[in-house]
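Please, structure for the following, as tokens.
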Amino acid sequence: MNKPKTNLRAKSVEDYQAKLATPFAVLGVRIEEDWLTDIEYLPLDTPPLAPQTSLAKEVCDQLQAYLADSGFVFDLSLHIGGTIHQRRVWSAIQDIPSGATRSYADIATQLHSAPRAVGQACGANRLPIVIPCHRVIAKGGGLGGFMNASDGIPLTIKRWLLQHERV
């Protein structure tokens, strides 16, 4: 599922192979060769863009399947990049089933790390929803942060995703 890929060329901000409208944001999908490299939350008023490649279409189909059924399990070729620590965090996050959450502290304990380092890895996740960092919450049960933010639109998106998963 997560096949490694390196040496990707830099992408411009507008270089998307699809833009999928959802209830909480438009999802900008980036593909490099045969790999999903990025999913970005774009403003709701961003014009959609039909998938430009067969992989972009598959990504959009799987995202729509998740929106229809929060228990949907993604099966995509991913370029996850990141440091060794970030990849360990993202792997632990992928093990959190839909409808469940874990705290930053729980993941930190599992990985012999620190909650803040887990939060930083979540903020560096370039494949949200597919790597479901929205399922990681504060130790006391609060939302915690999302997309390197502690309020505003990012938390609205996190709240929407958790409600979609009936958390």
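The two ends are 26 Å apart (CA to CA). Residues 1-13 have pLDDT under 50 and may be disordered.
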